[in-house]
Design brief:
alpha+beta, four-stranded antiparallel sheet, two-stranded antiparallel sheet, 8 strands
């Protein structure tokens, strides 16, 4: 019931913010065919077979609904608390606990192999696809081709289109057809095609299947989170924790805050310079219950303030940055962290 309410809320929010959104001007048949012809030539030049190109692109037509979804996404007016209310629901926590328990042995095996705590794998799948239940049903080639034509993010989606064609050309999809979200993300993991090619993992040796095979979905998620060379995952620390700031934070600390974003992650703001946990304690920060912060001075820790200095604050560790790479949003990364805590307690 809660999940149904969330869908209704998001539907209302989308329409409330898009009623004045201008309808996109769709290409003429000639404009589309000329552009698509060039795409086919490029695909052939990079090694995609003519058979795959013809099968996947000959009858593709641009979809105005897809462009509208991309251009007219609802403005982000939620606070973190509102976002968490809709993303970390009681039923998602309950389902996550059961999911973690049901696949305990497999998750433990995969977690030990990739050196990552299973709860984070489950939390990502919970956020991305409700543990595999909601993977999307939109034809990915149609969606991605439409977005590759649209000027807003053409370069990005051209890369996704060629990657999607490569996936199909190599017969990496068990069903033979890519389906997923309107933005091109697929499977339980909701990976975009380039990410799929880079980090999707065949755990049991029978071909990669992130749509139906939990082992491959778990391993692919773990592989992505732990494969960042410059920021290896630490399985002996968590993602972070909510903290209480000192009363005089506005005058004694705010000047040290600056924007430090992961590469290509321009949406993440209000992330402090690193300090030791002892330094944070000396500045007056405590756990949310008022207890002192743990004494682990070898662990790099930063302060984040998703809603600014008047909002909730979190001390985060290096693992948090890896979650950001999965989805470049402070709200998302905090949600994954909090959900991982809740499903493991």
């Amino acid at each position: 019931m809660i999940f149904r309410f969330v869908l209704i809320f998001l539907f209302i929010s989308f329409n409330a913010h898009t009623t004045d959104c201008e309808q996109p001007k769709m290409p003429t048949d000639d404009e589309w065919n000329i552009w698509l012809s060039n795409i086919k030539k490029e695909a052939l030049e990079i090694g995609i077979s003519q058979n795959t190109i013809s099968k996947q692109l000959n009858n593709v037509k641009p979809q105005s609904k897809i462009i509208m979804r991309d251009r007219c996404q609802p403005a982000s007016t939620m606070t973190l608390d509102e976002y968490l209310f809709y993303t970390i629901t009681k039923d998602k926590i309950f389902a996550g606990k059961n999911f973690l328990k049901k696949h305990e042995d497999l998750l433990k095996e995969i977690g030990e192999f990739f050196k990552i705590q299973p709860r984070f794998i489950v939390a990502v799948l919970g956020m991305e696809s409700y543990y595999g239940r909601n993977q999307g049903k939109i034809n990915s080639i149609i969606a991605i081709t439409t977005l590759a034509f649209d000027r807003r993010r053409s370069d990005f989606y051209k890369k996704q289109l060629f990657a999607a064609l490569e996936i199909l050309d190599k017969n990496l999809v068990p069903s033979g057809e890519l389906k997923g979200s309107w933005g091109g993300a697929v499977g339980m993991t909701q990976m975009i095609p380039t990410t799929f090619l880079e980090t999707a993992y065949d755990w049991d040796g029978d071909g990669i299947d992130i749509w139906n095979n939990y082992a491959d979905a778990f391993a692919s998620t773990a592989n992505y989170l732990t494969s960042l060379d410059k920021n290896p995952w630490s399985n002996d620390s968590t993602w972070g924790r909510e903290v209480l700031p000192p009363k005089d934070i506005s005058s004694s600390f705010f000047d040290t805050i600056k924007q430090i974003n992961p590469k290509g992650c321009g949406a993440v703001k209000r992330r402090s310079i690193p300090k030791t946990l002892s330094e944070w304690s000396k500045l007056g920060f405590t756990k949310i219950n008022g207890d002192p912060l743990p004494l682990r001075d070898a662990l790099e820790a930063r302060l984040i303030m998703p809603d600014g200095i008047d909002g909730r604050m979190f001390i985060v560790y290096p693992n948090y940055k890896n979650i950001l790479y999965y989805n470049c949003s402070s709200y998302y990364a905090v949600s994954v962290g909090l959900l991982s805590d809740k499903i493991s307690n």
